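In line with agreed milestones, work has continued on tokenised descriptions of protein folds. One protein thus recorded appears below exactly as we store it:

>
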Amino acid sequence: ELQKEGDVTYLWCSVNGVLSRPKLVILDNTVHIFSMEGSAQVDVPVPKFLAGVSGSSAQGGAIAPMTGTIEKVLVKAGDTVQKGDPLMVMIAMKMEHTIRAPKAGVIKKVFFKEGSQANRHAALIEMEEEEGAGE
């Protein structure tokens, strides 16, 4: 069972019949576990549906940071963009979020139109694969 005390998260667990309460620190996709017996880290793999749209992959693209409504779509398939160019504007939690290009490239597909609801981590834009992309 996870328990939060202030800004600290503890994992109440039983290991070989011995109760333990290690402290958890989660950074990016790694969980760091600290206890009196020592420490360990566990890497959590990126889900395949996110790996295909992350900025570091060959495909690239943009994903929704949270669930929200697409207010403006600023690009269409075939458009050339530079890293950081605005792609669309999303309204989530009563705030405007500008979704920007993770890299320079050509827009392959826009998955949402204005007024659509997008779930958290949904692929919003797909970018063309670069020729000879081997970063």
